[in-house]
Write a structure and sequence with these properties.
Blueprint: H1 2-9, E1 15-21, E2 24-29, H2 35-43, E3 50-51, E4 54-57, H3 61-73, E5 79-86, H4 95-109, E6 113-114, E7 121-127, E8 132-136, E9 139-140, E10 151-156, H5 162-172, E11 175-183, H6 191-207, E12 209-216, H7 218-227, H8 233-248, E13 255-257, H9 270-277, E14 284-285, H10 293-303, H11 306-309, H12 331-338, H13 343-353, E15 355-360, H14 363-368
Parallel strand pairs: 5-6, 5-7, 10-11, 10-13, 11-12, 13-14
Antiparallel strand pairs: 1-2, 3-9, 4-8, 7-8, 12-15
Helix pairs in contact: 3-4, 5-6, 5-10, 8-9, 8-13
The protein binds adenosine-5'-triphosphate and magnesium ion.
Adenosine-5'-triphosphate (ATP) is lined by residues 156-158, 160-163, 180-182, 241, 258-260, 264-265, 267-268, 315-317.
Length: 376
């Protein structure tokens, strides 16, 4: 799965082949491939623990030496370190011997000082039975598992800071995430929908294909506001959201994901989380439940969603929010309140109004997939 994800992620960037070798995957590039762009795509592919850019060579000491020299000449450095690994033990030198020989040539012909602990320039040499690799230092990948290997989940995406981070964390564990956003339409502007578009387009670079359902939720909220006690509105909104998201997830077997974090707001107390989730027998995962807001913000910054998340908007949550929402809604109270509503009709209204959009990344992959809307 990782190989096919890497192939898709690098579409259009001159990757000629992707091959699995013991302990690694090799992407062979065309001579004019934009290496920085390829690295950037690899760096956002889950399942990659680390990566490096290098050259593939025959197992020939002269050729390896020239490649090491070319690598050193291309960089500015004071200290350098050469690390050799041999999986082919028939090579006539040990790894430390080869490192020492190559290091001496670099000192003599390019300059610099050897520092194996913290070199400015790290050069890795690997000797396999039929091939050798000379590469720059290993860079960290995003880790995790290749997307789609763990299955599909549906994330309730608000446009705030938390839910994009929740989606990212599920992708990192190998899930393909579909998104559902509840907008305040027809009572609010498009701002929240535009933000969610931007967020989903951005997150699609980590999973390559996304689906987003946008559900106009303003009228459903209007019904809740008109009929149930003020203090319980938010819990009822959330229960309606879960019902509709589950219905959109086709067949109801899909796992739901939210950005809830314990105690962060009134709807996220233990009592309310339980009362909200009791509406569905579908598993609801909350990857941020034990995270502190500052940790979530830091991760949002790293992922690149924070700036969009804090843009001002008016989503359905800002509509009809009571001044004193309850922090302890019991199931009995909430079910009594819901008897004042035509829940099946409201659900049907939400599902019927939902509009689906598809996102594909990278653009070159989108172009290959006719009939899909390309974004991001
Ligand atoms: P976020 O930063 O994700 O908006 P939040 O701190 O604002 O979260 P709440 O508003 O209580 O918290 O929402 C809790 C969770 O409910 C969100 O993380 C999201 O998964 C879901 N949710 C809330 N509002 C919406 C919405 N308008 N559309 C879809 N999901 C929503
Ligand atoms: Mg929110």
């Amino acid at each position: 799965r990782l190989i096919s994800n890497l192939r898709d992620a690098t579409t259009g960037l001159g990757v000629r082949a992707a091959q699995s070798l013991p302990g690694r995957i090799v992407l062979r590039l065309a001579d004019d491939a934009p290496i920085a762009a390829v690295c950037e795509r690899v760096a956002s592919t889950f399942g990659v623990a680390n990566y490096s850019a290098g050259v593939e060579l025959p197992v020939d000491l002269d050729v390896i030496r020239d490649a090491v020299l070319a690598c050193a000449r291309a960089e500015t450095f004071t200290t350098f370190g050469i690390r050799t690994r041999r999986t082919d033990k028939s090579f006539p030198m040990t790894s430390p011997q080869l490192s020492a020989v190559l290091g001496a040539v670099v000192v003599e012909q390019v300059g610099g000082r050897v520092d194996l602990e913290h070199p400015d320039l790290a050069i890795n040499v690997e000797i396999l039975p039929k091939t050798a690799y000379v590469s720059g230092g290993k860079l960290p990948g995003p880790g995790g598992l290749p997307v789609t290997i763990s299955g599909r989940v549906t994330c309730l995406m608000s446009g705030g800071i938390d839910s994009p981070v929740a989606a990212y964390r599920m992708m990192q564990r190998g899930c393909r995430v579909d998104f559902v956003h509840f907008s305040g339409a027809p009572y609010t502007s498009r701002a929240s929908v535009d933000k969610v578009h931007e967020l989903v387009a951005h997150l699609t670079r980590y999973q390559l294909r996304s689906e987003l359902w946008v559900v106009p939720f303003g009228e459903i909220q209007g019904e809740i506001v008109a009929r149930v006690p003020r203090s319980h509105r938010v819990v009822l909104y959330r229960r309606m959201m879960l019902r509709i998201a589950e219905a959109l997830g086709q067949g109801g077997a899909r796992v739901l994901v939210t950005g809830e974090s314990l105690g962060q707001v009134s709807s996220q107390t233990l009592e309310n989380i339980q009362t909200i989730a009791a509406v569905t027998s579908t598993l609801v995962l909350r990857p941020l439940v034990g995270m502190d807001k500052l940790e979530i913000i830091r991760q949002a910054e790293r992922i690149g969603t924070f700036a969009t998340s804090i843009l001002p908007d008016q989503d359905c949550c800002s509509l009809f929010t009571p001044p004193h929402p309850t922090t302890r809604a019991t199931l009995a109270e909430v079910e009594a309140a819901e008897r004042l509503l035509d829940v099946p009709a409201l659900m049907a209204q939400g599902v019927a109004g939902a509009v689906r959009e598809r996102f594909v990344f990278p653009p070159a992959l989108a172009r290959l997939q006719t009939g899909l809307t390309a974004r991001g």
